[in-house]
Design a protein that fits this description.
By secondary structure, this protein is mainly alpha-helical. The protein has helices spanning 12-17, 20-27, 35-43, 50-63, 66-75, 88-93, 104-121, 134-144, 149-171. The protein has one domain (12-171): UraD-like.
Length: 178
């Protein structure tokens, strides 16, 4: 994933006309190439607008089988993952582009929190970063360890769609589609 750059998106009306594989490939960067989830989104076309697609994506994320929900969450990189191992969009979202130099203690803390979170819940911590620093994210991650698995899974799945909506904005989705 690290070598894949972000690309602008065509209007949804054009994506609706693509074959399933082309549609899945076009939306992959929004959802970290989660195959089962993207295939489900492709089946429910046409959407007409990105807004409609995102609304349907939220419903699909919440209602698809749990193994596919976990696959969707696991498609997202770990918070604090090496910048060379994640997509260009994830590098910016995780704040690497705002750090003068990585804090090794914070990196170790994030690694330990990721491990604890994944052992507790069985899936990766996914959060809509929304400009938070990696330090603030580590505090948030620690707080989320007190929640139930179902609460965390529901929140994380909603955040996957919020991340995609933010990526759409950053990639310059046509205004009439957003």
């Amino acid at each position: 994933m690290a070598d894949r750059g972000s690309t602008a998106l065509a209007p949804m009306l054009e994506l609706d006309l693509l074959g399933a594989n082309g549609f899945v490939q076009a939306l992959g960067q929004l959802f970290e190439d989660a195959p089962s989830f993207l295939a489900r989104i492709a089946v429910d076309r046409p959407y007409g607008t990105y807004r409609s697609m995102l609304a349907r994506a939220r419903v699909i994320a919440r209602t698809m089988p749990e193994d596919e929900q976990v696959e969707l969450l696991t498609a997202h990189p770990r918070i604090g993952a090496e910048p060379t191992s994640i997509s260009a969009l994830s590098v910016g979202e995780q704040g690497y582009d705002r750090e003068a130099s990585p804090d090794p203690h914070l990196s170790q803390r994030l690694e330990a929190l990721n491990r604890t979170y994944e052992e507790r819940f069985g899936f990766r911590f996914v959060v809509f970063v929304a400009g938070r620093s990696r330090s603030a994210i580590s505090e948030l991650m620690a707080e989320h360890l007190t929640r139930t698995r179902e609460e965390e899974k529901a929140r994380a799945l909603d955040d996957v769609v919020s991340i995609a909506a933010d990526r759409l904005r950053k990639l310059g989705a046509p205004e009439e589609d957003a």
